[in-house]
Structures are given as structure tokens and as C-alpha cells.
Amino acid sequence: MSVRAKKHLGQHFLKDEQIAQQIADSLTEKGYKTVLEIGPGMGVLTKYILKKNLVLHVIEIDTESVEYLKTNFLNLSDRIISKDFLKINLADYFGEEQVAIIGNFPYNISTQIVFKTLENRHQIPEFSGMFQKEVAQRIAEKEGSKVYGILSVLTQAFYDVEYLFTVPPTVFNPPPKVESGVIRLTRKENFTLPVNEKLFYTVVKTAFNQRRKTMRNSLKTLNLSDNLREDPIFAKRPEQLSVQEFISLTTKIENDVI
């Protein structure tokens, strides 16, 4: 029995054992004992994680894949969650336990998976997985690059990001039309912001929504005081600001008196 890849679920099943081993080995196993694999499919990556000294749970929305896993991974059957990762509350399944995330993520929801991870960062010390290459690069990119954007700043505010390696389309069934990239996120020791988090998100998103403009123009809708808008940071474009500068800018905006 094998599982048919379903286009509407963005499924591309990894068939290269060596790459599966490399992704599993990207887990550092530091600070946690529990791992949640998202979208295991037919378990190519799963079997390598099971060899580690970790407690593996998997979450899979595809009922055909769930049946395959229950039949072929008997030692995993009571730790298969047949749900949509984007819709579950991690605490309902893991309480307050620290849980690392891993997976060969469907391209069509990979960015949403990252945002959900950021929301649950108090519970997710590490995150390792495969994305479309350009998305992986965007998450890992530093300031000064045209690829650097909202996803880069928000992720790097809470996690250290490493781009690990590139994966060709030929190792999947069916092969995607683009290359893939594997990245690892390691939660920072201090993963809270010294500013209002909601305001920080607003500043970053508003700035990059008009990324070709200077900060002075892209943040016009925030109705900042003329005095604040004279700060030299407002002469820069959003892609020129580091994560720390965005945090500093948010502090200034928070204290702004119009």
C-alpha cells in the first residue's frame, strides 16, 4: 500500500533516505524530549526520528496517510494526531511540555506554520524543516537584502535561524517545480520583546507593505509626530533595518507624543 499525493494538500513525498536522515539529524535534542512531526505522509522522515532518544508524535490531516502510518508504524499508532496543525491548541495535547517541531512542510501552508510557531514560542524551543527554497531563504535572510522582509524580522526577533542545505526537486514524488531548503530555528534565551508585541508586528508589517519607500513614508498611517519622523532611522527603507533597529523604532513609537 502507498499513499497518493494530493495536490490540494500540497503533498510532495520525500523519497531520498539520505536527505530524510539529514533532516532528522538537524534536531539538536537540547532542552526537550518531545517532537511533533507535521505532515509525515508515508513516514520517510518519521522512521529516522524514531531512532532517536525522543518521544515522537505526528500530526497528519490526510486520512489515507493516517491509515498508512497506523499499519506500518505500530509503535507510533497511539501518538498519531489526525488533525490540522494550524487548527489545534498545542496545550490540549502536550500541556506545558516543551515540543520541538519538524517536517517536510506543504508549501501552501508553510508560512502559516511559521507564524503559528511564533505564537507558541513559549512551548517550541526548536523548529526544523523543509520549505520552498525562496521561503527558507527569506526566513533566514539578514537586513540589506531584497529577500529580507516581514517573515525574516518576525522570526529572527524570537529565534536564531540557520539555513542548513538545499534540496533538489528530483528527490520528491511528485517532484515540485522548485528547489527546497531546510532551515533550523533555535529559540533565543530571551524570547520576549522589550516592547509592545502587537505594536512591533504592526510596525514591521506596515513598513514592508511599502518596502520601496522610506520609513518616513511607509509609516505615515501610524500618525507619528513630526519630531519623531525627523529621527535618522526614518530616512532608511525597511529592508535596511536590523531586527534590533525595528525593536528600537517600536520603543520610540511607543513613547511618541503627537
What does this 3D model show about the protein?
This protein is of the alpha/beta class. The protein has two domains: 7-187, Vaccinia Virus protein VP39 (Rossmann fold), CATH 3.40.50; 197-254, rRNA adenine dimethylase, C-terminal domain (Helicase, Ruva Protein, domain 3, Orthogonal Bundle), CATH 1.10.8. Helix content is 34%, strand content 18%. The protein has eleven helices and nine strands. It has helices at residues 17-25, 46-49, 63-72, 90-94, 110-119, 133-140, 150-158, 197-208, 215-218, 226-229, 243-254; strands spanning 13-14, 34-38, 55-59, 80-81, 99-104, 126-132, 159-167, 172-173, 180-187. The chain has a seven-stranded mixed β-sheet with strand order 4-3-2-5-6-9-7, with helices on both faces. The protein has a two-stranded antiparallel sheet with strand order 1-8. Helix 8 (197-208) crosses helix 11 (243-254). The termini are far apart. The model has no long low-confidence stretch (mean pLDDT 91).
In brief:
The protein has 258 residues and is an alpha/beta fold. The chain has helices spanning 17-25, 46-49, 63-72, 90-94, 110-119, 133-140, 150-158, 197-208, 215-218, 226-229, 243-254; strands at 13-14, 34-38, 55-59, 80-81, 99-104, 126-132, 159-167, 172-173, 180-187.
Strand tally, please?
9
Level of helix content? 25-40%
Quickly count the helices.
Answer: 11
Sheet having the most strands: 7 strands, mixed
Taken from the alpha-carbon principal axes, the silhouette is elongated
- Largest beta sheet: what is the strand line-up? 4-3-2-5-6-9-7
What would CATH call the class of the largest domain?
Alpha Beta
Q: Could you report the average pLDDT, rounded to the nearest whole number? A: 91
Return residue spans where pLDDT drops below 50 for at least 5 consecutive residues: none
Question: What proportion strand?
Answer: 15-25%
Distance between the termini: 66 Å
CATH superfamily of the largest domain: Vaccinia Virus protein VP39
Supply the helix-strand structural class. Answer: alpha/beta
**Would you tell me which CATH topology of the largest domain applies?**
Rossmann fold
Radius of gyration based on Cα positions: 20 Å
